[in-house]
Specification:
alpha+beta; Immunoglobulin-like; 6-stranded antiparallel beta sheet; protein-glutamine gamma-glutamyltransferase; about 20% helix; Coagulation Factor XIII, Chain A, domain 2
Amino acid sequence: MSVACDISAVKAGALSKPEGEVRLAAVCQPAENMPQAFPSGMFAYTIPCLCWWNSHAFFKACKPLREFAPFFHDSLLIWHGTEVMRISLRRQCGSSASQLAFSASEAVANAKALYVQRRYKIQKSMFLDVREAFGSALTSLTLRTSSSPFCLIALEVQSVNWQMSTNRWAHHTDKFSSQKSILRRGQSFQFSINFNRSLDTREFLKFAVSTGPYPSESAMTKAVFPLSNGSSGGWSAVLEASNGNIQTISISSPASAPIGRYTMDAQISSQGRVSSVKLGEFILLFNPWLREDSVFMSNHAEREEYVQEDAGIIYVGSTNRISMIGWNFGQFEEDILNICLSILDKSLNFRRDPSTDVARRNDPKYVGRVLSAMINSNDDNGVLAGNWSGNYSGGRDPRNWNGSVEILKDWKKSGFRPVRYGQCWVFAGTLNTALRSVGIPSRVITNFSSAHDTDRNLSVDVYYDFMGNPLDKGSDSVWNFHVWNEGWFVRTDLGHSFGGWQVLDGTPQERSQGVFQCGPASVNGIREGDVNLDYDMPFIFAEVNADRITWLYDSNTGKQRQNSVDTRSIGRYISTKAVGSNSRVDVTEKYKYPEGSSQEREVFQKALGKLKPNASFGPTSSGRLELEEREPSISGKFKVMGLLAVGKEVSLVLQLKNLTSDPKIVTVNMTAWTIVYNGTLVHEVWEDSVTMSLDPEEEAEYPVKISYAQYEKYLKADNMIRITAVCKVPEEAEVVVERDVILDNPTLTLEVLDQARVRKPVNVQMLFSNPLDEPVKDCVLMVEGSGLLLGNLKINVPTLRPKERSRIRFEIMPTRSGTKQLLADFSCDRFPAIKAMLSIDVAE
């Protein structure tokens, strides 16, 4: 006697300890030589897992089989085709699951050996009974052993091979110093699952991917999908190869999937039950290499620069003296990507509505805007606290940072408390790291003579008194330079023509939608004056193209008078690093038409009209127009004489010219103030007054000399001094002349003393000479560079005597080949921040 079943699923398996219930995933079929007494078309049974399995309980649960009790008292045979599975209910406990198949004619001869090997009780009479029942149809016998009786083994995942090296190379994430699987959306990746046995044709696999704390399919933060024949545009899985127990599978994600941390599970349908097992985790990033991705960048060289380059140049200074500093973006350094994803998870948006926030991370404009809010700490305990006071106690002078890596790691190490302190280029450098790390192409932009317009009237008001003192009056200001970022992506919300570079600014200047965040604002839209579009277009338009209005304030009467309007001085030399080199590229024409052109003024009028529809004749009142029409009778400017260096006398001349054919008597009041680069006044260091007589069309000069003793105590790390002259001709409006000068620091030199090779120590030398006639003390050298050092190197340098030359050697250990950038910051009591940068070619 026997039971005829379809046990194709059983044949591929083994036996395991029963849990919950035992499923006989078999449908009985009539067999050609089946005994007549057998009830055909029998059943698909689910049998409760009975207390350690006993035959009496089994028969009670299986009513249709009770008539076969004598046979099943010792063992159970499930027969199909030419194979028999025999399970003894009286056997000893066996070893781990295994299988041995042999023909029926060999069964008796091998029974004893099998018993010795597997301690499995097999009776000769049972085999004879089987042969008698089925005769010639029985040609083979499969015997299986297990640690427990009567339960088909579950399909289990033994291990997962994420094929990290292959996938990361294909997805352009091989530079990340991480053990995690880092992938880019819209692009397939392969991995292999090693099961405990091979899959049967009646077993099915599905995969589930999820991101965020409350994943859901409706929000596209969760997807469940089976093995299929190809990509459907959404999440999909394809079986690439099957080799025994190992299944190689290709997974594709949609080009619009949210970026972030993902978990992937396998859902296994086997023997009538569905089980789920976690396969692992991966990180999904934006994909600038994929045409369908909204951050797609077609130019290979630009992708390499704006996504893959981990060091760069930031331009600082003033319109009269543009200088550059190196910055270590370090987006591939260990833990940086994880920290940048944590920035998103710490945002106000996530804390208020995590489900919606995670779902919206499919959109680069949303991610960029959140990052711009979180880089500063004003609303949300973000990464950096800003400080422009000149007093940096309790933190670090912003000028001393060399890059983003230390900042981001300090933020995490402190329990995500703001790092002190940052200023605009520090915010921009750190935001650039975050953007590139998540896959948004980005670059750092510097705008010289940058307006800060607080009232959306596209003009900035600056104030002086009649003695030439600049006044901290009013909320507008003009920064010597301001640094922000551009991210590259399409703007589906605005239209095709507004895609490409988008301004994002992490510096906390003005609130946007109640939060200190800025952008994304289309650069194309800014150029065309479309200030009504999202996001923050009026503010950024004013930064590059506002009118500057000068006011004179009478401290005796408390009255102020508009002095002049300058339509050309705001937004000059807008700069960024060139692709593939350290050259400066001027991108001013991307932001506005040429100053003084009719197009530039037309766009200005268009922008003002969108903000102030009732302003029918332009940006000014009639009184302001009258002032513009009155030509001054004199002109003036400051000219630098000689070198400008810390420790030296500042020497300039005021050049005045009579523009008329009449003689002029000019009263000149002058001051000099140390300032911070954003226009914040620090301290007056010099003043002078003089009366000058000018013959018709004569040009005369008056010397200005400011000694080191006058400015040394008040000079900040920016090394900036603002000299102002208010020039008064009787019965005429005053002429205000202004010049900001930047004093040079002494030179810091870096030299490589050895050939640089990967994983070989390299000696580097720093050279510095004290130019002062006094000692400099509290000297510290900070060095860093992605691919050259793990972390930062801090060296305390002994006090330097007057005119002494210091030579410091240190060692670096390159970890990656290619051209790498070594950055150094030297600080002491007299020189708060001296920078040096060195490109090093590292061989394998």
